[in-house]
Amino acid sequence: MEQYTENYCWVQNTYFLPLHDYIPHNYAERENRQIGYYQWVPFVLALEALLFYVPTIVWRLLSWQSGIHVQSLVQMACDSRLLDLESRNRALQTIATNVEEALHVKHQVMSGNRLKLLNLIICTRSSGAAVTFLYISVKILYTVNIVGQIFLLNTFLGNRSKWYGLQVLNDLMNGREWEESGHFPRVTLCDFEVKVR
Fold first, then answer.
1. Where are the transmembrane segments (predicted)?
2. What confidence tier does 121 reach under pLDDT thresholds 50, 70, 90?
3. What phi and psi, each to the nearest 5 degrees, are found at residue 189?
4. How many domains does the chain have?
């Protein structure tokens, strides 16, 4: 019977009341205090992890179009720290050659083009603006992602306050524990009917 009760309450949601409050007889008041997010926490956290990874995927998929494979060069530079002096010098020479060749190609395109200004404005591989534009776009995507996830969490937690995190910090600074405030309570109540024969 206990397992059935726990499973039922898990599916039907629970509600929070401070420890010394009386249980209200009005079901509408109980529904206003319902907490329906505990069973969804793992799924929401997994979704948030995926959303935080999206800008990284965008960067990795598109950064190679600059003519310089940034990720490979950075990895090669990091790995060169572990090599002996001669191997390190060869690795650094390879990195320098790759960057120099990419810059040389860009310089030839830029000096041979009468529309230099247009070539700078348009984000093409040869102008060098593509990587800069992509980098700034990915940083903006990170920022939009963070702000969006704050609103997602606020909606998920069903909080009336737009600044939920600040409200929790304010409660903690004023000595109001989470058990009293109802933020992630450890003890909740659940209503269900029992038929006795």
1. 40-62, 140-157
2. low
3. -115, 155
4. 2
Please give the average per-residue pLDDT across 124-137, as a whole number.
72
How far apart are the C-alpha atoms of 81 and 128, rounded to whole Å? Answer: 28
Q: Has residue 63 been placed in a domain?
A: yes
- 148's tokens: 């969006």
Q: Where in the sequence is the domain holding 175, given as residue range(s)?
A: 1-37+158-197
Phi, psi of 35 (to 5 degrees): -120, 110
> For the segment 53-102, what is each residue's pLDDT rounded down to a tens digit?
999 999 888 877 766 677 777 888 888 887 888 888 888 888 888 777 76
By C-alpha distance, which of 169, 185, 193, 152 is closest to 35? 185
Enter the tokens of residue 75: 């990895």
Same domain, residue pair 80 and 48: yes
Q: What is the mean pLDDT of the chain?
A: 77
Residue 149 belongs to some domain of the structure? no
Asked if pLDDT for residue 38 goes beyond 70, the answer is yes
Q: At what angle do helices 85-112 and 70-80 cross, to 10 degrees?
A: 150
Judgement on whether residues 130 and 189 belong to the same structural domain of the protein: no
Note whether residue 49 is domain-resident: yes
